[in-house]
Amino acid sequence: MGFQEAVKSGFDHYTKFDGRASRPMYWWWVLFAIIVAVVASTIDAIIGTPIVSAIVGLGLFLPGLSVAIRRLHDTNRTGWWVLIALIPLIGFIVLLVFYLQEGDEGDNQYGPPPPTSYVPATA
Q: Sign of dihedral through CA atoms 56, 59, 63, 69?
């Protein structure tokens, strides 16, 4: 899965908290979110108000949470593990390890393995 496919999938599945997301899908999404945040911060610095960053943060929150939960599902963990991020430093490290781990190769309790190419969301 490439950058464009991962971003398109992230937005198409922004309310889909079931299923699984592969490592490339998750990390391409993270790269996209970082790039957009840097651009928004630059625009905010130019205009002197944090409004663009606030709008971007609100717009990327739900799709980012969705892809993070689906990534945890790929490693056969419940999405509730995202709450461990509330523990300073330790939570971030634990989640980073989970996100870096290889996903289950076959089916698990969260469904079949994620597709290797983009699959549009169904209504």
A: positive
| pLDDT score of 119 | 60
CA proximity to 81, closest of 111, 32, 70, 115: 70
Q: Which residue's structure tokens are 């980012």?
A: 64
Query: Looking at the DSSP assignment, which residues form a beta bridge with residue 108?
Result: 111
Q: Where are the domains of the chain?
A: 3-100
Q: Which two tokens stand for residue 85?
A: 């991020």
Structure tokens at 40: 């928004």
Per residue in 61-94, pLDDT (tens digit) is 999 999 999 999 999 999 999 999 999 999 999 9
CA 5 to chain centre: 13
How many residues are recorded in the chain? Answer: 123
| 43-55 per-residue burial string, b: 16 or more CB within 10 A, e: under 16 | ebeeeeeeebbee
